[in-house]
Structures are given as structure tokens and as C-alpha cells.
């Protein structure tokens, strides 16, 4: 099925052509955000992985560049990983004092009974990230005898003065440390006993986040492959301590810490040492879901990244939770504010228009609400707030492509019971950029990301609940 051109989002990164998945090598360097990504240039399906490359001055407008890394005949395809700035040339790979180093997993297909071989490798760039050379002594971390060993994320740990590499190994995260970015020593392991309903962990990230009082915590993120029988949230996080060796969870909740309540937010990666205007780490994710990723409608390209989001923690009573908000460069762009009158709004349909609906429902612990965003006469994204179960849901079944995955008929549900225990006002900011809807609840304490596939552009908002206050703003790129 062909996705008509107007469905390409305008403030979300998409490739010019072909297949993409995870963001890789995210780094801010010399005034540009570099986004590398899992890329298969020869098809619109997942295949032998390369690292594609794009840059942006503001994380909104992107330019795509030449492929950064190609698979090689001896070590295989280029799976996910990260990038750092070797400012002091500790690696000795650079002649002067500047250079970027990328860490990736080499994935080599081998005949049965051996199976694939995944190992950690590096490549370096002497021209600020535009061309890359593979390190001749790859791999830098060899496979310890397991099938799934991948997705290295490297950070600098001030306290210990070491570089730290984390990689997933089955259902755990392995930690390594290094002084020169080339030789890596085992440092620790996390995860053996942790919420292991998922099959395999993928794409870890580790960072320090502050709560609203300025207290810092270490937060470890993972993406999870789950089985159809036992579905598991695509991404989860752990809050705790990191001593330069391993991570210890210190704030356990009775429920899994879900990063995003939608199906379509995966393999998120933070930008190396980049901070938003309010001094918070920034990340973005692949907005897709493996069970149907290879089936989504396409128009010669397939795959979208999420909005760039800044990350922090919110402390309430004895609990701490992740908060995500679009970076201000995104949210400040929205203008032409209007208020829904009689609970309806005609949405502009000019190419490149992105909508933002801010809905507020007073007395929300007692009253339910229902509203929809319509595309033409018969298709709509239906939003529902159920005050008895304290759940907010998106029904996107009317936006389902032909012959698509059954999962798409299921409601996308955010359980807001914890958040609503502290307020009586439901608030949600809904960003709609053609085929992607991101809902930020309250101050970003919960987020819900969903792909949608209407046959025509969204053109109206209709609320079926009188008490709902809705303001609208937009941006056209
Ligand atoms: C996550 C993932 C990674 C892997 C890459 C391969 O989406 O499965 O674990 O490195 O995609 O494309």
C-alpha cells in the first residue's frame, strides 16, 4: 500500500527513501545535531544494516547526508550504537585534539548451528562526523558466548574519570569501563532479577536526571522485545545509583516504569552531552513497533523518529517518575492560538501543517470525556477519558491500513490513576504531525506516542464533552 506524500511528517525526521529503525550515534557537535540511524538503503524493509546520517541545527529541520557506515564482509552488518567526542584524544586516533568516535555492534550472520555473532566495534571521524573509518583492531569487545550482545551506549563518568560503555546481553545490561575508549574492562552487570518478562533487552541508555528540587539520580533505560503471549511495554526505566561500575536500582515501584504508553516509541537515545535550553538531556526514539514496523504504509520511505524531548524527573511524595516534554525549540514554534468554540475546530490542511491541541478537563475524577480528530468524513482518531478507570485511550482502529496487523485494533491506553490522585484537572497536549500523534499528559509525566494512517489529512476536531476546554495552535514548515 502506498502512503500519499502529504503523510510525511514535517517536524519529525524521516529518511528521503528506504527503511530506517533506531536512532544511533546521537551527538551535538559544532552547532549541529548529528543523528545516525539504522538504515537499509536498498529496500523499505529491514535488511543488512548501515548507519544513515542526518544533521540539524535545531532538531526540527533535517538534512540527510551520505551513508556513514556500511556493512563489512568480515564482521558483518552495522547494528545500533552511540557516539562520543574524544575531546582530549585519549584514544590517540586523532592527530590534533578533535575527533568523534562511534560505537556500534557488528552483526555477522553465520550458518546453523553457530547463529549470528554480535560484537562491539568502533569507527572514528576526523571531519566532524561526516565520514568514518572503521578501527583496524575491531572488535573492541568480543562476544562472551551469547546470541544477543549489542547496542553499546558510551558516556563519560566524571566521578570515576572513566568512559563507561553499556551494552545489552540477553536480559541484562553489561557495564565496561575504559580510559582510552579503545580497551574495555568488565565493570558490572545489572538486570538478572529485574522485571524480566521481556524476551530480550535492547538499546540501553544511562544518564543523570534531576528532579524539580535539583537532586540528581541515575536513570537506566532499556527497550524490550516481548512475546505476543506476554506483551510488555516497549521501553522501561530504572531509577538508582551508578558508581562507575554498575547500576543499583534504589526506587522500586510496584509497577513497571513505563517510558511511553504508546506502542510506537522504541530504542530512544540521548544526545551525547547535549542539553536543552532548560539544561536537560535530550533524546528521541524510533516511532514504530517491531511487530508491525515492516508493514506500515510507505511511499518509498519507511520510518519516523519521535519529537526530540527533554528529560527530567518529577518527585512527588515518595515517588519519582520520568517526565518528558518536547524541547522548547519545538513547542515555542506553535502559534495562531485559537479556542474551540462549541467544541469544534476546523483544522488547517495546508501541506506541512502540524497541529497542537491542548485539552483541559476540570473535575476529571468525576467526569469522563470523549473527543475526536477527524480526517474526512469517516475516519478519526478517537480519544476517550474514563473517569472511573482513570484511563485515557486512543482508538485508532478507523485509521488502520488495509491488511494490517491486528494489534492496531487494540486501544492505546494510558493509566493515569497515580497522576489523577493529585489533581482534579486532566491536561493533555496533543501534537499531530500527519501520521504521528504524541500526547503529553500533565507536565510530561506520561506520554503516549502513536502512528496513525488516515487516507486524507486531519481536518477537524470535535469534542463530545461540553466541559472540555481546548486550545489550538499550529506550525507550518
Ligand atoms: C532495536 C534493534 C537493536 C539492533 C537493531 C538492528 O530495534 O533490534 O537491538 O541493534 O535494532 O537493526
From TrEMBL:
Signal peptide bounds: none
Under the heading CDD domains, the entry gives: GH32_Inu-like
Which InterPro entries does the annotation name? ConA-like_dom_sf, Glyco_hydro_32, Glyco_hydro_32_AS, Glyco_hydro_32_C, Glyco_hydro_32_N, Glyco_hydro_beta-prop_sf
Annotated keywords: Glycosidase, Hydrolase
Q: Glycosyl hydrolase family 32 C-terminal domain spans which residues?
A: 333-458
- Which GO molecular function annotation, any one, does this entry have? hydrolase activity
Q: Which PROSITE patterns match?
A: GLYCOSYL_HYDROL_F32
The record's annotation in SUPFAM superfamilies points to: Arabinanase/levansucrase/invertase, Concanavalin A-like lectins/glucanases
Q: Which residues form the Glycosyl hydrolase family 32 N-terminal domain?
A: 12-326
Task: Give the family, as the similarity comment puts it.
Answer: Belongs to the glycosyl hydrolase 32 family.
PANTHER family documented for this protein: EXOINULINASE INUD (AFU_ORTHOLOGUE AFUA_5G00480)
Name used for this protein in its record: Glycoside hydrolase family 32 protein
Amino acid at each position: 500500500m502506498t502512503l500519499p506524500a502529504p503523510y510525511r511528517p514535517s517536524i519529525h525526521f524521516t529518511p528521503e527513501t528506504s527503511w530506517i529503525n533506531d536512532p544511533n550515534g546521537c551527538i551535538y557537535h559544532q552547532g549541529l545535531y548529528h543523528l545516525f540511524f539504522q538504515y537499509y538503503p536498498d529496500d523499505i524493509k529491514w535488511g543488512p544494516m548501515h548507519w544513515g546520517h542526518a544533521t540539524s541545527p535545531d532538531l526540527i529541520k533535517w538534512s540527510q547526508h551520505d551513508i556513514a557506515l556500511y556493512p563489512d564482509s568480515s564482521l558483518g552488518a552495522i547494528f545500533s550504537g552511540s557516539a562520543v567526542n574524544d575531546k582530549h584524544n585519549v584514544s590517540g586516533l586523532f592527530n590534533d585534539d578533535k575527533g568523534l568516535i562511534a560505537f556500534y555492534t557488528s552483526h555477522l550472520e553465520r550458518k546453523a548451528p553457530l547463529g549470528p555473532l554480535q560484537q562491539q566495534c568502533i569507527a572514528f571521524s576526523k571531519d566532524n562526523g561526516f565520514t568514518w573509518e572503521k578501527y583496524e583492531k575491531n572488535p573492541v569487545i568480543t562476544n562472551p558466548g551469547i546470541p544477543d550482545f549489542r547496542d553499546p551506549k558510551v558516556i563519560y563518568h566524571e566521578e570515576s574519570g572513566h568512559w563507561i560503555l553499556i551494552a545489552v546481553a540477553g536480559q541484562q545490561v553489561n557495564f565496561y569501563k575504559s580510559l582510552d575508549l579503545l580497551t574495555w574492562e568488565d565493570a558490572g552487570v545489572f538486570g538478572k532479577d529485574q522485571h524480566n518478562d521481556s524476551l530480550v533487552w535492547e538499546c540501553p541508555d544511562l544518564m543523570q536526571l534531576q528532579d524539580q528540587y535539583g537532586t540528581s539520580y541515575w536513570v537506566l533505560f532499556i527497550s524490550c522485545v516481548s512475546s505476543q503471549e506476554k506483551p510488555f511495554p516497549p521501553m522501561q526505566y530504572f531509577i538508582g545509583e551508578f558508581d562507575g561500575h554498575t547500576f543499583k536500582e534504589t526506587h522500586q515501584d510496584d509497577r513497571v516504569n513505563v517510558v511511553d504508553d504508546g506502542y510506537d516509541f522504541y530504542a530512544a537515545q540521548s544526545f551525547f552531552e547535549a542539553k536543552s535550553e532548560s539544561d536537560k538531556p535530550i533524546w528521541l526514539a524510533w516511532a514504530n513497533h517491531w511487530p508491525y514496523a515492516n508493514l506500515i504504509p510507505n511511499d518509498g520511505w519507511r520510518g519516523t523518529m519521535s519529537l526530540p524531548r527533554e528529560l527530567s524527573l518529577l518527585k512527588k511524595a515518595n515517588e519519582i517518575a520520568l517526565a518528558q516534554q518536547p524541547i522548547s525549540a519545538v513547542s515555542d514554534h506553535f502559534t495562531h492560538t485559537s479556542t474551540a468554540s462549541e467544541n469544534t475546530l476546523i483544522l488547517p490542511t495546508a501541506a506541512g501543517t502540524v497541529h497542537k491541541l491542548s485539552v483541559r478537563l476540570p473535575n476529571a475524577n468525576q467526569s469522563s470525556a470523549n473527543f475526536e480528530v477527524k480526517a474526512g468524513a469517516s475516519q478519526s482518531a478517537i480519544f476517550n477519558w474514563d473517569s472511573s478507570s482513570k484511563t485515557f485511550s486512543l482508538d485508532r482502529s478507523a485509521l488502520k491500513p488495509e491488511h494490517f496487523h491486528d494489534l492496531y485494533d487494540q486501544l492505546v491506553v494510558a493509566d493515569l490513576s497515580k497522576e489523577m490522585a493529585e489533581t482534579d484537572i486532566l491536561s493533555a497536549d496533543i501534537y499531530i504531525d500527519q501520521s504521528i500523534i504524541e500526547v503529553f499528559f500533565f507536565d510530561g509525566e506520561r506520554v503516549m506516542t502513536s502512528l496513525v494512517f488516515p487516507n486524507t489529512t486531519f481536518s477537524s476536531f470535535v469534542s463530545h464533552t461540553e466541559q472540555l476546554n481546548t486550545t489550538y495552535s499550529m506550525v507550518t514548515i
